[in-house]
Amino acid sequence: MAEHPVLVTGATGKSGRRVVARLRAAGLPVRAAARTGEHPFDWHDRGTWDAALEGVRSAYVVQLDGTKLVRPFVELAVRHGVRRVVLASGRGIDDPDYVRDGGGVLEGLLDSEAAVRGSGLEWTISRPGWFAQNFSEGFFADAVRAGELRLPAGDGAASFVDAEDIAAVVVAALTEDRHAGQVYELSGPRAVTLAEAVATISGATGRDIRYVPLSTEDYIAELGGQGVPRADAEVFADVVEPLGKGADEYVSDGVWRALGRPPRTFAEFAASTAAAGGWPA
What we know:
By secondary structure, this protein is of the alpha/beta class. The chain has helices at residues 14-25, 49-53, 70-79, 105-117, 134-137, 141-146, 163-175, 194-205, 216-225, 230-245, 254-259, 266-275, and strands at 6-9, 30-34, 39-40, 58-62, 84-88, 122-128, 148-151, 157-158, 182-186, 192-193, 210-213.
C-alpha cells in the first residue's frame, strides 16, 4: 500500500499532526485532511468525503465527538477500496460510570468502534487516556502558562499519555500487518496527580506553577465569572470529574504491546516540551 496516500483525518490535531509528521519522515505519501489545512475535510460536509478517500488504502480516523458519522464514512471507505483503518477512540468508553455524558460522546464512540469492527476492513482501535499535551496545547495550557491550574479534581491522578506515543502506535498500526483486530489502551507508565504534574512542569521550565483544587460549584462559578455560560461550565466540570475520581489512574499496556517499549514518562514529556519552547512566558 506504500504507493497510495495514507489518509489522516483530524490532521491538525494533537495526534493527527504527529501521525502526519511520522509518516512523512518515513517517506510515505500522506493526505492530511482537516477543515483547514492541506486537504479540506469536514465531518459535517459529506461532499468532502469522496475526495479524501480517493485512492486511499489505509486511514487514521479521528472522529467528531458527539456524532455517529464514522459509520457512514467507513461504509464509503469500503466502497472506495480502503483496506485498513485505525480508529481514534478513548479509554473509559465501556464503563457506564466513567463520566456523565450529556453530549452523547460515549455513545458516539461506541457506535464508531462497532462500525469499524463490523466493516470487514483490517481495523485497529486506539484508546488513549488523558493526553499529557493537555498541559501544553490543550485543556489546561492557558492556566499552566498563567502559573495556576484551578480544577475540581481534588488529589486525583491520571496515567497521562504522551501524544508522541499515541502517534507512534497509530503509525505502527497503519504501516504494519500485525495490528489488525487489536484494541490498544494507551497510557503513561504511572499515575501522576495534578499537583505532581504542575510541579514537574515547574521543574522543567524554572517557573512557579501551582495546582489549586476547587469544589465543582466554585469551578462553575469561576468559569461563569469569565463569561462561560453555566451549561458549558457544567460540561467542563463533567469532563474533569473522572480525574477527581481517579478513574484514569490505572496503567494500560497498549504502548508496550504495539511498540515493544515502555511509554514515555510525564517528566520526559515536560522536559522535551520545555526544551522546544512549549510554555512561553
